[in-house]
Write a structure and sequence with these properties.
Number of helices: 11
Strand content: under 5%
Structural class: mainly alpha
CATH superfamily of the largest domain: Cytochrome c-like domain
Shape: globular
Order of helices and strands: HHHHHHHHHHHEE
GO molecular function: peroxidase activity
Protein name: Cytochrome-c peroxidase
Number of strands: 2
Keywords: Heme, Iron, Metal-binding, Oxidoreductase, Peroxidase, Signal
Distance between the termini: 49 Å
Largest sheet: 2 strands, antiparallel
CATH class of the largest domain: Mainly Alpha
Pfam families: CCP_MauG
Number of domains: 2
Helix content: 25-40%
Strand order of the largest sheet: 1-2
Main location: other
Oligomer: single chain
Length: 266
């Protein structure tokens, strides 16, 4: 419990602060006279590539890319989960149950295929249509490109951002430039400085229990038969067992500590 004296001093401080922030011009003018003007350096303009990444980031976090304005790409791909979401599956805007676990987007620009089961989606620009327009199940529920482009192109801020990011196209907002901007941002989501990486460079030492895990992973447990290479995935599709004949892509084990639950079905 505070003493009476401390309460009085606290109230006095609050009163003084309220005078400073809400009193008339005299108090503000006196304070302003003592604060020197801080010069603002001339910031270098963004390159077109940098402007495209910043535009893509805004699109990634914009729920207006969904039909009812309730779901952004970031609604499922959360940074704290290495751009997964920590759920077995994620319902879309219609609340229909999802059917696939949300994959992490860490190092997604280095992947050869981009969904759990479909081996034909090989670029980020292609993949964007699946959550935005897909209906098996409905995720973001946007009916078509015309609706999305009408919404984006009607935003004055987007008009300026596209003009900076696509100068050679005169700031065109269309079914090519929107995916290109999103993909440019997603390719910056790089994870390559774990303790494991540092140990490979002789910059850190793995704890003893991790070293025992390494011996198992690359030895008796045969984990590295599928989880290989710098991304800890062979990027191939495998049948899990006879009860599940569909071939599923080997997930990367990058950031595995924050991407549970696992596998394609969570």
């Amino acid at each position: 419990m505070r003493s009476a004296g401390s309460v009085v001093r606290l109230l006095a401080g609050v009163c003084l602060a309220s005078v400073f922030w809400s009193a008339g011009g005299a108090a503000r003018d006196a304070q302003a006279a003592t604060v020197p003007e801080v010069p603002t350096p001339n910031a270098a303009p963004l390159s077109e590539d940098e402007a495209r990444i910043q535009l893509g980031r805004r699109l990634f976090y914009d729920a207006d890319l969904s039909d009812d304005g309730s779901m952004a790409c970031a609604s499922c791909h959360e940074q704290r989960h290495a751009f997964a979401d920590g759920m077995p599956t994620h319902p879309g805007i219609t609340d229909d149950a999802g059917v696939r676990n949300v994959p992490s987007l860490g190092n997604v620009g280095a992947l050869k295929t981009l969904t759990w089961l479909d081996q034909h989606i090989t670029t980020l620009e292609q993949q964007i249509a699946t959550p935005v327009f897909g209906y098996g199940p409905v995720e973001m529920g946007m009916p078509d490109w015309a609706t999305l482009l009408h919404r984006v192109s009607g935003d004055a801020c987007y008009q300026k951002l596209f003009a900076r990011a696509f100068k050679n196209e005169n700031g065109r907002i269309d079914a090519r430039t929107v995916p290109e901007a999103l993909a440019a941002f997603e390719r910056t989501l790089i994870s390559q400085n774990s303790v494991w990486d540092q140990a490979q460079k002789k910059q850190a030492r793995l704890p003893d229990d991790a070293q025992r895990g390494v011996a198992l992973f690359f030895g008796q447990a045969h984990c590295a038969a599928c989880h290989s290479g710098p991304l800890l995935t062979d990027q191939s599709f495998h049948s899990i067992n006879a009860a599940h004949p569909a071939r599923v892509r080997t997930p990367s084990l990058r950031n595995v500590g924050v991407t549970a639950p696992y596998l394609h079905d969570g």
